[in-house]
Amino acid sequence: MKEKLVHQYLLSLAGDERKCKNLWKTFCAHGFAAEIYLNEPELGAYRLTNAGIVMFAKQSSEFQFNPGIKITRYSGLNPGSGANVIQETKLIGPLPRILNSAKKTLTNQLRSFDPDRCKFSGEEHYPTDAWFEGLLNAVIHRSYRIKDPITIDIFDDHLKILSPGSFPEGITTENICKNELGRNPAIGAGIASFGGTGKGVSRIFSEMNAAGLPEPIYITRSDSVKLVLKNRSSI
Predict the structure, then answer these.
(1) 198 three-class SS
(2) Of 89, 114, 120, 112, which Cα lies nearest the Cα of 102?
């Protein structure tokens, strides 16, 4: 496991990691580990749960999980032949780490691109709280049974966040702002302990509305949920 992340997590729980006397029992209590029952129970063996692997494993792909994020910045309004790719970023690793990296990458790339200077510049095209809330929802509510990464495609007039897995049971495009049922509550609580507390889908709608931008669009399929945000160029 990533020791630094584990220390940060324990500090967020107790203020002093020494108060968490048994790491594995603490992880069990929060859904990140499970006890392995042996013929000799006194040996006390544990394993990471899927949530624990996603949050803390050094390389979760080794465990056949891929909580990765793939970010592609395009020039133009659609992917075209692929020749219009400005930059592609693939992030793999413990979820708190790749979330931080994704936020830095998106903060830089959600701006206009100057081909002469090969540089992104100007104001962000979307409210930070809107697109970051969309990203948080994707990593917390995605299906980790599907091995595909979350993909974020950025175009001149819109961005798309594609999350593997359909909506959790009971969630529809009609009630998504009012219903905050989650697929992965342990991961949601874990992300919150690292300062990634989400405000819900309604925050995305309110931030886009306050910025005078088009209403977010959710498109759901049997194996994915897509969030589309449009900027002023689309108006």
Answers:
(1) coil
(2) 89
pLDDT tens string 129-182: 999 999 999 998 899 888 899 999 999 999 999 999 998 777 878 888 877 667
Over residues 39-62, the pLDDT tens digits come to: 555 556 888 898 998 898 876 555
Domain ranges of the chain: 3-63, 69-234
Taking the C-alpha atoms of residue 115 and residue 215, their distance in angstroms, rounded to an integer, is 30
Task: Look at the pTM and tell me if it is higher than 0.70.
Answer: yes
CA distance 132 to 190: 17
How many other CB atoms are found less than 10 A from the CB of residue 211? 16
Would you say 180 and 197 are in contact if contact means Cβ atoms under 8 Å apart? no
Beta strands per DSSP E along the chain: 33-36, 45-48, 69-74, 85-91, 112-114, 119-121, 150-154, 158-164, 217-220, 224-230
Contacts (Cβ under 8 Å, ≥6 apart) of 133: 198, 199, 200, 201, 203, 204, 207
Rounded CA separation 198/188 (Å): 9
Fold topology of 69-234: Heat Shock Protein 90 (3.30.565)
- What DSSP designation does 61 have? G
Distance CA 218, CA 165 (A): 13
88, 71 contact by CB (below 8 A): yes
Residue 78 has pLDDT above 60, yes or no: yes
Q: What are residue 101's DSSP bridge partners?
A: none
Tokens for 199, please give them. Answer: 């405000």
